[in-house]
């Protein structure tokens, strides 16, 4: 060790005293002291950026710049200690006996996994090696070195995690199966705030989250976390942390420019751009402000897959007709051609009566949606710290989003906004947080009613059918072959239809988008407009309050953490998604949906939790137990326990096992929705929604109706009367008998092992899970006969006449128990120097279930997913690179909108970064899907190609 008094390079760890005998200590204690210095890497002897320097037991903090330099000010009495930490390096404690003009300290490189601290797994800081459940942490270094085009997309490389792309602006994470683009089972927090949309019920990706400049780290729990977080966290949790303005001051700017659609498939080559700014400043030591703003614009990925998901639905009487095109097609990315837009055409074919199923023509998604998207984000915070531990803050967030969101239908989000106000008080033991999230869907619209009403404005389904049927028969009578006859019949029926690309089409589309009344077309409501609408108009909010307190200093035998929270949704009825059930009803007992608003719909939940942690045998054994009780006034209170054990015979080897029992209350949409889905109403499962409608107790399943109709048509074509054929086949009809809606339940078992080898060069992380789902929530489509009870002859005949039945797609619980299981393995290896190889592989599967169910399971997860990355932070001076390859196996996707096989695919991402420390800047060039091998992740989703970008970041320390 060199001379301490000269403040020279100090490579050793431990406590280091810095003394200057010429300094007048008494005078210094009365003055503001300013210390400056630098922190270096003992391996490379180069300055380290983002090192945290804190005066022990105070809030006096500084962070090094890209050259490793820092300044810190304090009025603390001499002597005091500087605590110096950076992830990936062993910490230092430096004792300051006198001020100095220069302090130089060296930190020894150390594998990140050793010192990494996480909070999400237990709501308290703990080493990631000893976390009681599987958890992944993405630190700022990993984010900077990722080739992903945005920091949020780095989640795609996390072990066991999927990231679905709905739009360039909208990414949805999921883990451990039952995936969907509207994932109710995965929770996302930003600085402790749930950033979901109130009415859509899911996080809108990172639309209201941190900017590229303000993200500090991400923690991902790929499994049940409901014991501590409740509500929607039974499939996983992503917690994003932003930079602290007290430790990360300065002005930063970020620019990213890029291109996609480089192969001119579906769209010509297009540019994208993002600009961001961050400003943080500390005033008078205890006050700080932080402001972030970003603007992104680009051309979205196009959804134009024309896979027919009903290739065998043309003929009900004879499946052996061979046509070039299926007149009853239901294409993935076409709307208005679905089952409910299908008509039965009866003609004389070769002297024999024949019934054909024919769909309305509909419209392709690319003709209904503009591919131009944007995302504007802004947040501002005011922070105050007092005493040694206490801090208060107010933070405002705003996000404006364009994008395409997939639920049972496709929703085009246009100028949709989410605002968030948060107040928070934190101390060493207490955290209080309250916030409100305010949603306004702006100019958004629903593609399904848009396509339906574009067609229905021309002709009703019945009139269209008659024209089609007459033309088809006339063509066949004239000797035209069947294939050409169908083409001519459709052309005749669509003669006056609005054609995409024309001014008339654009005018009609804009008119329909502006009408907030999906029910008006053919609804029979007096005074309704002639043209039905498609506008999605939601102006809603939810309120959250939570308090946690660490009682450990009062309870000596174990650590005790407890908390309480309350959430209230206040939804303004729009007459389309949600209605006021106290409003007047029409003749079918349906609340009048004329675009007006009634009283707010209220949905709420509250809960309490407690967690104890105890260590034994010189900290080798850690037992963690938590219990949570949640109550929603619509349901009985539910108990969520979790118990876990972590055994560490030595610090480098850690074994864990856990059991969790979790409940998920139905989301707002699953409980209370009332959506006209093109003459099929999607409804929540609560009894208050069903009152007077009868779909729970007086309905037949749609699957059985299809079988029944096919059999009846076959018999009718064979010469029977329809009445006789219906009686002969009525046993095919299945009464739905839907149960009262209940919370979804999961029992989750998990074991894991995390360890380091070879002087911390190799990190191994393995886990295995087994989940049991009871009362799994899904949708089933049923038909209610008008003015009759199921089982009666009148009800049986009504199933052959669409005008004599009401169709509902109901959220309900499964009668079966579903079991899923899987395993994942992550390996991180420092090969030599700065080279690192990270590999993870995941396997997920659904156990076979011999019991039939009313709805599809929608596991929607590939069995195998593999990620491999190779990188070097500094392959040559100030230049580093990262290369990431991903592969997943083919799998079957099932959803109410579209189903089909998703082929296996692989992608390669790459980036190179040039650090310019002299001006505190970085230049990054990169590509996602470098080889431009187009793929899609789910049925009816967009086709994703290559994206190539150049980014520039500049930091000015203040």
Automatic annotation (TrEMBL):
It is found in: Cell outer membrane. Residues 130-236 form the TonB-dependent receptor plug domain. One of its GO terms (biological process) is siderophore transmembrane transport. Pfam families: Plug (PF07715), TonB_dep_Rec_b-barrel (PF00593). GO terms for molecular function: siderophore uptake transmembrane transporter activity. Belongs to the TonB-dependent receptor family. Residues 445-930 form the TonB-dependent receptor-like beta-barrel domain. It is a multi-pass membrane protein. One of its GO terms (cellular component) is cell outer membrane. It comes from the Bacteria. SUPFAM superfamilies: Porins. PANTHER family: HEMOGLOBIN AND HEMOGLOBIN-HAPTOGLOBIN-BINDING PROTEIN 1-RELATED, TONB-DEPENDENT OUTER MEMBRANE RECEPTOR. InterPro entries: Beta-barrel_TonB (IPR000531), Beta-barrel_TonB_sf (IPR036942), Plug_dom (IPR012910), Plug_dom_sf (IPR037066), TonB-dep_rcpt-like (IPR039426). The lineage of its organism: Bacteria, Pseudomonadati, Bacteroidota, Flavobacteriia, Flavobacteriales. This is Energy transducer TonB. The keyword Membrane applies. Keywords: Cell outer membrane, Membrane, Receptor, Signal, TonB box, Transmembrane, Transmembrane beta strand, Transport.
């Amino acid at each position: 060790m060199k001379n301490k008094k000269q403040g020279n390079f100090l490579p050793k760890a431990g406590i280091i005293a810095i003394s200057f005998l010429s300094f007048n200590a008494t005078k210094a204690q009365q003055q503001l002291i300013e210390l400056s210095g630098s922190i270096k890497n003992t391996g490379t002897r180069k300055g380290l950026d983002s090192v945290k320097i804190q005066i022990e037991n105070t809030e006096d903090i500084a962070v090094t710049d890209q050259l490793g330099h820092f300044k810190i000010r304090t009025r603390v009495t001499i002597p005091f200690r500087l605590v110096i930490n950076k992830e990936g390096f062993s910490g230092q404690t430096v004792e300051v006996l006198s001020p100095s003009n220069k302090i130089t300290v060296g930190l020894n490189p150390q594998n990140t996994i050793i010192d990494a601290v996480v909070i999400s797994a237990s709501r308290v800081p703990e080493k990631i090696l000893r976390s009681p459940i599987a958890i992944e942490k993405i630190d700022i270094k990993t984010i900077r070195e990722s080739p992903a085009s945005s920091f949020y997309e780095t989640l795609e490389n996390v072990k066991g995690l999927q990231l679905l792309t709905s739009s360039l602006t909208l990414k949805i994470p999921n883990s451990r199966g039952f995936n969907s683009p509207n994932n109710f089972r995965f929770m996302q927090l930003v600085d402790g705030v749930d950033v979901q949309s109130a009415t859509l019920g899911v996080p809108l990706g990172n639309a209201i989250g941190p900017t590229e400049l303000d993200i500090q780290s991400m923690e991902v729990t790929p499994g049940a976390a409901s014991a501590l977080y409740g509500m929607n966290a039974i499939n996983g949790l992503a917690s994003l942390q932003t930079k602290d303005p007290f430790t990360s001051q300065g002005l930063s700017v970020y620019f990213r420019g890029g291109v996609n659609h480089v192969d001119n498939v579906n769209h010509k080559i297009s540019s994208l751009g993002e600009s961001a700014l961050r400003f943080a400043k500390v005033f008078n030591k205890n006050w700080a402000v932080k402001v972030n703003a970003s603007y992104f614009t680009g051309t979205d990925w196009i959804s134009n897959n024309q896979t027919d998901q009903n290739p065998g639905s043309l003929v009900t009487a004879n499946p052996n007709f061979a046509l070039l095109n299926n007149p009853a097609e239901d294409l993935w990315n076409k709307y208005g051609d679905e089952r409910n837009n299908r008509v039965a055409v009866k003609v004389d074919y070769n002297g024999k009566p024949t019934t054909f199923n024919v769909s309305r023509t509909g419209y392709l998604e690319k003709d209904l949606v503009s591919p131009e998207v944007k995302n504007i984000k802004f947040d501002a915070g005011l922070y105050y710290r007092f005493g040694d531990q206490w801090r208060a803050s107010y933070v405002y967030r705003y996000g404006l989003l364009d994008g395409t969101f997939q639920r049972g239908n496709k929703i085009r989000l246009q100028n949709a906004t989410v605002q968030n106000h948060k107040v928070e008080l934190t101390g060493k033991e207490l955290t209080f947080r309250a916030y409100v999230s305010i949603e306004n869907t702006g100019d958004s619209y629903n593609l399904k009613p848009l396509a339906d009403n574009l067609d229905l404005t021309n002709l009703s389904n019945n009139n269209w059918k008659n024209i089609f049927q007459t033309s088809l028969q006339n063509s066949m009578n004239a000797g035209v072959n069947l294939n050409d006859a169908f083409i001519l019949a459709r052309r005749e029926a669509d003669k006056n239809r609005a054609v995409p690309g024309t001014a008339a089409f654009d005018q009609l589309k804009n008119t329909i988008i502006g009408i907030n009344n999906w029910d008006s077309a053919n609804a029979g409501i007096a005074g309704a407009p002639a043209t039905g609408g498609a506008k999605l108009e939601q102006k809603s909010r939810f309120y959250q309050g939570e308090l946690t307190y660490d009682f450990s200093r009062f309870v000596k035998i174990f650590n005790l953490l407890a908390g309480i929270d309350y959430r209230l949704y206040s939804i303004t009825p729009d007459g389309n998604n949600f209605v006021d059930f106290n409003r007047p009803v029409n003749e079918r007992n349906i609340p009048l949906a004329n675009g007006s608003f009634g009283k707010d719909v209220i949905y709420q939940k509250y809960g309490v939790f407690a967690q104890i942690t105890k260590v034994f045998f010189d900290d080798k054994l850690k037992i963690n137990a938590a219990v949570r009780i949640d109550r929603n006034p619509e349901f009985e209170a539910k108990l969520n326990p979790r118990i876990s054990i972590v055994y560490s015979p030595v610090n480098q080897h850690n074994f864990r096992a856990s059991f969790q029992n979790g409940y998920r209350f139905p989301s707002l949409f699953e409980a209370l929705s009332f959506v006209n889905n093109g003459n099929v109403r999607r409804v929540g499962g609560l009894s208050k929604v069903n009152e007077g409608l009868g779909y729970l107790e007086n309905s037949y399943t749609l699957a059985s109706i299809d079988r029944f109709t096919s059999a009846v048509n076959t018999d009718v074509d064979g010469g029977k009367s329809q009445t006789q054929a219906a009686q002969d086949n009525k046993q095919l009809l299945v009464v739905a008998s839907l149960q009262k809606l209940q919370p979804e339940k999961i029992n989750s078992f998990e074991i894991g092992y995390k360890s380091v080898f070879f002087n911390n060069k190799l990190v191994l992380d393995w886990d295995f899970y087994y989940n049991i789902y009871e009362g799994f929530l899904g949708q089933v489509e049923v038909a209610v006969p008008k003015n009759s009870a199921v089982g009666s002859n009148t009800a049986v005949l009504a199933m052959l006449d669409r005008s004599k039945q009401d169709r509902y797609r109901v959220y309900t619980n499964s009668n079966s128990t579903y079991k899923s299981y899987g395993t994942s393995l992550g390996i991180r290896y420092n090969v030599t120097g700065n080279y690192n190889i990270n590999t993870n592989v995941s396997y997920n599967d659904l156990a076979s279930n011999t019991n039939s169910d009313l709805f599809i399971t929608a596991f929607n997860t590939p069995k195998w997913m593999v990620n491999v990355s190779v990188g070097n932070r500094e392959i040559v001076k100030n230049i580093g690179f990262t290369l990431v390859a991903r592969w997943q196996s083919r799998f079957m996707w099932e959803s109410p909108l579209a189903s089909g096989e998703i082929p296996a695919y692989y992608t390669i991402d790459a980036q190179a970064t040039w650090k310019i420390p002299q001006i505190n800047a970085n230049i990054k060039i990169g590509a996602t899907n470098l080889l431009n091998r187009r793929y899609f992740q789910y049925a009816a989703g967009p086709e994703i190609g290559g994206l190539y970008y150049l980014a520039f970041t500049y930091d000015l320390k203040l």
